[in-house]
């Protein structure tokens, strides 16, 4: 496998984890049906990320593609109609980016799977997880994983902080402060 | 060890967390253990004695596993990465408590998230046939 492909192999799964975190954080600040939908989608994204990491390939690409596109279209429609006026923009945009990355990657995987059915050697070419990794490939994949984690964290951290959960979070240095301190006041410290 | 992503990740992150834990005590020396006020490590990471203990414990577990063998490193990486993310998600729903470890735009929360993703990713995805990997 080429070095860039080795390094970026896990990035769609990391995007799934990032998207799942942002969606569950949005769910924590929502109520009613949106909370259920956001939490369900978030947990599904986290689960897909974990299981796909374990399998070393994007699982259920067609179902994930359909779900991601449907979620993006629904969110776009809701934003356009003003239904999400109370929802902070940054986490919504970050979740959209993560879902788009997942959708693009599973679309590629679905195309690859179709190509596999056409050629007898294709499945062997596209099963990197079953091969024994060489030392250099292992190091490249670790470096790629670290870069991907930094990119996901760089987008997810400010997005999580902009959610309702972030606004009421307690800064580390203030654990145990008086309960009378209003969370909203503390939120402006960072 | 150099051919094992899990051992490399566990050793590097373990060393960093142990170092952060030890250095943390230098900036929180006069602070109560339950830490109503913390200190700033390297001028950016907010720490208090309770966090120093947590960083030391996590770092020690990672370091020992990383220096031991592939299977131990893989197991500890996965458990710590999953625990961080799980606690982070649960923390969103009990946001006014210290359990909310991921939802502030601060360097320590960034470090928690990035290290959790790397540890979970390498623990789940690398060396699925850990017994044949070069230890």
From TrEMBL, chain A:
Keyword Disulfide bond tagged: no
Membrane-traversing stretches: 37-56, 63-84, 90-110, 141-161
- Stretches of Low complexity bias are at 125-136
**What is this protein's name?**
Uncharacterized protein
Q: Where is the composition biased (Basic and acidic residues)?
A: 172-190
Q: Where is this region: Disordered?
A: 112-136, 165-190
**Signal peptide range in chain numbering:** none
Which organism is the protein's source?
Agromyces kandeliae
Q: Which UniProt keywords apply?
A: Membrane, Transmembrane, Transmembrane helix
Automatic annotation (TrEMBL), chain B:
Ranges annotated as spanning the membrane = 12-33, 53-72, 84-103, 109-126
Keywords of the record, alphabetical order, are: Membrane, Transmembrane, Transmembrane helix
Show the Pfam families listed in the entry: DUF4383 (PF14325)
What's this protein's name?
A: DUF4383 domain-containing protein
**The species this protein was found in:** Agromyces kandeliae
Organism placement in taxonomy: Bacteria, Bacillati, Actinomycetota, Actinomycetes, Micrococcales
């Amino acid at each position: 496998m080429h070095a860039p492909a080795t390094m970026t192999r896990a990035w769609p799964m990391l995007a799934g984890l990032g998207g799942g975190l942002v969606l569950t954080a949005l769910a924590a600040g929502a109520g009613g049906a949106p909370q259920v939908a956001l939490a369900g989608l978030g947990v599904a994204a986290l689960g897909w990320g974990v299981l796909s990491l374990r399998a070393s390939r994007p699982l259920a690409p067609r179902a994930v593609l359909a779900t991601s596109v449907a979620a993006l279209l629904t969110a776009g429609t809701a934003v356009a109609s003003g239904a999400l006026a109370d929802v902070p923009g940054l986490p919504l945009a970050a979740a959209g980016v993560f879902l788009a990355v997942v959708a693009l990657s599973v679309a590629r995987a679905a195309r690859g799977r179709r190509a596999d059915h056409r050629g007898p050697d294709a499945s062997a070419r596209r099963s990197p997880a079953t091969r024994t990794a060489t030392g250099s490939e292992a190091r490249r994949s670790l470096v790629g994983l670290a870069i991907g984690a930094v990119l996901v964290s760089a987008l997810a951290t400010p997005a999580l902080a902009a959610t309702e959960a972030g606004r009421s979070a307690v800064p580390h240095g203030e654990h145990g402060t008086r309960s009378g301190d209003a969370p909203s006041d503390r939120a402006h410290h960072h | 060890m150099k051919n094992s992503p899990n051992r490399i990740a566990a050793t590097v992150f373990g060393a960093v967390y142990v170092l952060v834990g030890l250095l943390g005590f230098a900036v929180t020396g006069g602070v109560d253990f339950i830490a109503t006020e913390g200190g700033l490590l390297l001028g950016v990471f907010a720490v208090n004695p309770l966090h120093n203990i947590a960083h030391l414990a996590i770092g020690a577990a990672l370091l020992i596993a990383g220096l031991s063998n592939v299977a131990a490193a893989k197991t500890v990486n996965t458990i710590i990465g999953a625990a961080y993310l799980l606690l982070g998600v649960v923390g969103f729903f009990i946001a006014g408590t210290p359990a909310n470890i991921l939802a502030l735009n601060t360097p320590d929360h960034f470090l928690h998230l990035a290290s959790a993703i790397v540890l979970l990713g390498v623990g789940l995805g690398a060396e699925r046939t850990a017994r044949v990997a070069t230890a």
